[in-house]
Amino acid sequence: MPLNIPGILAPFQLLWNPRIILPHVIITDIRQLDFLALRKAGYRGAVFDKDNCLTIPYKDTLVPELKDAWRECREVFGERNVLIVSNSAGTGDDPGGIQAESVSHHLSVPVLHHGSPKPAYRCISAIRTYFSSLPNPIQDHELVVVGDRVFTDVVMANRMKRRVARATGEPDKAASTYDRRNGPLAVWTNGVWQKESMVMRWIERCLVDVVGRRMDGKSGLSDSLELFTKLSPHPTVPQGRIALIRSLLHRK
Ligand SMILES: [Mg+2]
């Protein structure tokens, strides 16, 4: 697998904007997402990572345990409004887009063809082009971005947020970064279907933990956690750790 330069550089953005790695919602897997609640809240489309989020890495078929949740997701949003954005299928590592075609067939939704890996701004641009080309175009703030990696999926979702100006005309950095009206909802699935990059995942968890403590409840995550999640029948990772992170992000 070639180097993901945008992903490698993403941690440096932490130096001036540590909130870039904070998701709005932390779940084990997509069975915990309440898609109907998301739709009722105004979210009309979704971007999903593939490897270790929907499929075993480098496989083209859905993890069987996710069958019902995936069907619900497609029914709620509509299949054209759900887009898979992978750093394997649909990229330059997928000659002729053969894997993208296969994944699209098995998962019944489109797979984005893109030349720059997540979280590159050019990848974001390709996502926007897709959703703006729909018969009923979908804007960034109407999207849910779901993925299992902080420095690719979560950072990309947060990079899609736009700053807002207060009445004074001055950009309000604190308000804009996590105001979900200005960008997608970032959902981090931290369950792992097949072990992969475990050291990096541990580092990502620790960083989310530390930054969550540092924000000390200023990140505006609590509403999203309560509104858009439900209990998973068969959690794949220990809930204690998730509960700890949730409580850190939840504090006021
Ligand atoms: Mg992944």
What does this structure look like?
This protein has one domain (18-250). It has a 5-stranded parallel sheet. With 252 residues, the chain is of the alpha/beta class. Helix 3 links the parallel strand 2 (45-48) and strand 3 (82-84). It starts with a helix and ends with a helix. It is globular and about 45 Å long. It contains 10 helices and 5 strands. The protein has helices spanning 5-9, 35-40, 67-77, 98-107, 121-132, 150-159, 173-177, 198-215, 222-228, 239-250; strands at 25-27, 45-48, 82-84, 143-147, 185-189. Helix content is 38%, strand content 8%. The structure holds magnesium ion. Magnesium ion is lined by residues 49, 51-53, 147-149.
**Tally of separate domains:** 1
Strand order of the largest sheet: 1-5-4-2-3
Ends apart, CA distance between termini: 42 Å
Each distinct ligand? magnesium ion
Order of helices and strands: HEHEHEHHEHHEHHH
Helix content: 25-40%
Structural class based on helices, strands and sheet pairing? alpha/beta
The rounded Rg comes to: 17 Å
Mean pLDDT over all positions: 84
What's the β-strand tally? Answer: 5
Unreliable stretches (pLDDT < 50, length at least 5) are 165-178, 236-244, 247-252
Globally, the shape reads globular
* Beta content: 5-15%
Distinct helical segment count: 10
Largest sheet: 5 strands, parallel
InterPro entries: HAD-like_sf, HAD_sf, PGP_Pase, PGPP1/Gep4
GO molecular function, one term: phosphatidylglycerophosphatase activity
Pfam families: PGP_phosphatase
